[in-house]
Amino acid sequence: MSSLLPDLEKLLAISEAMLSAAGVADWEALASHEAERRAVADQLPGLLNSGLSATAQERARILIEACLRCDARIHPLVLARQNELRVVLREARPGA
Fold first, then answer.
1. By residue range, what is the domain housing residue 21?
2. What is the pLDDT of residues 31-57, one digit of tens each?
3. pTM of the prediction?
4. Residues 10 and 40 sit within 8 Å (Cβ to Cβ)
5. 56-71 residue pLDDT tens
């Protein structure tokens, strides 16, 4: 369990890299970072707070909330890109 906080810090760093990539419309980097983050997240234990001190639990909560804030900022950027692609795909359809 000692690696939990470093793993959560890594998740946050990757989330911040995802936000940066989305901010500059680097969708390939965003997808790459997302796959990396998923691999780290998949290694986390089911019960994140088991065996952690109160201080470590608070730090874990802060890190997770920061990741969620990054996700909340990424989401509208991805939706905007999806809408752009829908327009492009509609225009590219034969007979459209």
1. 4-92
2. 999 999 999 999 988 777 678 899 999
3. 0.85
4. yes
5. 999 999 999 999 999 9
User: How many domains does one find in the chain?
Assistant: 1
Q: What's the Cα-to-Cα distance from 59 to each of 14, 17, 23, 39, 80, rounded to whole Å? A: 17, 20, 27, 21, 33
* Residue 57 near residue 38 (C-beta atoms within 8 A): no
What would the 3-class secondary structure string for 12-45 be? Answer: HHHHHHHHHHHHCCCHHHHHHHHHHHHHHHHCCC
Cα 45 → chain centroid: 18
Of 51, 32, 41, the closest CA to residue 9 belongs to: 41
**What CATH number should be reported for the domain holding residue 85?**
1.20.58.380
